[in-house]
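Problem 12. The chain below contains 147 residues. Write out its predicted structure in token notation.
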Amino acid sequence: MKKTAPAPVNSRNSTALRTPAEPATPTALLLRGNLFAEKCPSRQILTHVTSRWGVLILVALLDGTHRFSELRRRIGGVSERMLSQTLQWLEADGFVTRTAYPVVPPRVEYSLTPLGREVSEQVRQLTDWIEENLGRIGAGQPADGAE
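Solution.
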């Protein structure tokens, strides 16, 4: 019996490949995102990863597993609500693992998944660059209130 090569999908929608036997659903076809497409789910993931708290959580977890309270202390200025919400987003995206222990008082720990480690390394490169170039970044801009 002759094997059929994967058929290319319409390049305007995705760069994914599918075989004739596979369902032609958008989820099944999407192997690569397109940030410039209005409805691409990659935009929401980008928002989670590059939000102020998302960046800081990802970089903090590069050091290893942390409890909620440790993350809150480490990330100055984050509210409990925003930390919790951002951790939930990152967990749903597959970047963070939440482990709850059945003890009193409750103990919950957060760590990076392998995919989370990959994205965290990318984000850390950006944060390192910003910290190293902070003096140059604001040098050409007027002070607050000045025109």
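Discussion. The longest helix spans residues 114-132. Students who got a different answer should revisit the alignment rule from Section 12.3.
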